[in-house]
Amino acid sequence: MQAETVQAFRRRFDGEPKVVVRAPGRINLMGDHTDYNQGFVLPMAINRSVWIAARPIPQHHIDVYAADYNETACISLIDFSRKESSWKSYIQGVAWAAHERGMEMPGWQGVVLSDLPIGAGLSSSAALETAVLSVDLVMAGIHMDPKEMAKIGQYAENRWVGMKCGIMDQLASCCGQKDHVLFIDCQSMEIQAVKMPTEIDVVIIDTRIKRELASSAYNVRREACRSAAEKCGVDSLRDMDVKRLDQCARSLDSLLRKRARHVVTENERTLEMVNALRDYNVEQIKSLMAASHASLRHDFEVSCDELDHVVSCAENIQGCFGARMTGAGFGGCAVALVHRGTVDRLTQELLACSRQQSFPIPEMYVCRAEQGAEIVLHRGAV
Ligand code: GLA
Asked: Which residue's CA lies nearest to atom 12 of ligand 1?
């Protein structure tokens, strides 16, 4: 991809880029809809990324070509009066967030290319934010802690784009570690890298379903969690366990009870999953993934028929150590863990199983845990 991105830059701008960056997408193995409740998550950055090749320009704007869309944008670094939409809003949001922090970013021109499916629930937006910020920082000669970078990306998405996401996706994209999943405490932002057992291959199953209203449904879930925490007298659902939830059950209507139960039990499952991976306890991994999917489906109600179907197909294939939806839900991807060497069987049998329904045929990718965002090329002083 690096060579392709450089090529695309040469074609577009008739010259050489000074900087090439890569920022990965992510999958999450356990802990969905827990990050904005100050809870635990277990994502891994994957070997599919958003790439940008760029060089500085003397103007105060970003002149960018998105090769995947065959579209261009010119985004001011000082005037934010006209709001961009779609992919452009993420770039503008990062520029705005940096501006808000008083950071003066120099202008640049660049090409964005991606081998990460866009809008499939693999955090293409967080990857784009992280990649743009990485270019901004190199151009400005600023070194920033990856966790700080993640906060800027989240701020841009929360305040500019209007998606009230938690911090998981940006942290995974900024702080990912090769061959490891990240066990993150979203309250303290402490990260522990947990080695992925070498016997396990991770398969992404993309249902190819995209829900138009996913972002507003997401914000509604977030609000429900906040309201449940308030009614139970805690700062966030992170401060509850099942016993405490039972005690305040009467203060909650049945919907809030279900939403809170998902978060509380999902936090517990995430802690257990860390141990199950460390011990390579495949039975436990499988049952935790099944319980998590059921909870996201019935209590949090963010799954959909297509996700439920691929998960139930995958679970029943020999060599599969468990499957669940991953990320926000409302379509998007599931993740399956399989015994190394059985990926071909999983993909074939899963395709056969999928055909039993009239849903779109899912796409599958085997992925690896990859390093977080990196500057892969930096030619001299910019
Ligand atoms: C989206 C958000 C994350 C997280 C997940 C669900 O990916 O961006 O912050 O809340 O959904 O776990």
From this structure: 32
| Residue at 166 is within a domain | yes
Cα 12 to middle of ligand 1, angstroms: 34
- Residue 187 belongs to a domain with what CATH number? 3.30.230.10
pLDDT given for residue 213 in this prediction: 65
Ligand 1 atom nearest 166 alpha carbon: 9
Secondary structure in 3-state letters for the chain: CHHHHHHHHHHHHCCCCCEEEEEEEEEECCCCCCHHHCCEECEEEEEEEEEEEEEECCCCEEEEEECCCCEEEEEECCCCCCCCCHHHHHHHHHHHHHHHCCCCCCCEEEEEEECCCCCCCCCHHHHHHHHHHHHHHHHHCCCCCHHHHHHHHHHHHHHHHCCCCCCHHHHHHHHCCCCEEEEEECCCCEEEEEECCCCEEEEEEEEEEECCCHHHHHHHHHHHHHHHHHHCCCCCHHHCCHHHHHHHHHHCCHHHHHHHHHHHHHHHHHHHHHHHHHHCCHHHHHHHHHHHHHHHHHHCCCCCHHHHHHHHHHHCCCCEEEEEECCCCCEEEEEEEEECCCHHHHHHHHHHHHCCCCCCCCEEEEECECCCCEEEEECCCC
Q: Which of 33, 186, 330 to mutate for ligand 1's pocket (most ligand atoms within 8 Å of CB)?
A: 33
- Which pLDDT value is given to residue 380? 76
Q: Whose CA is nearest to atom 8 of ligand 1?
A: 165
Residue span of the structural domain in which 355 resides: 195-227+261-367
CATH number, domain of 285, equals 3.30.70.890
- Convert the pLDDT of each residue in 26-68 to its tens digit: 999 999 999 999 999 999 999 999 999 999 999 999 999 999 9
For residue 300, tell me if it sits in a domain: yes
pLDDT at residue 381, rounded to an integer: 59
Q: pTM score > 0.85 for this model?
A: yes
pLDDT at 20: 98
- Catalytically annotated residues: 169
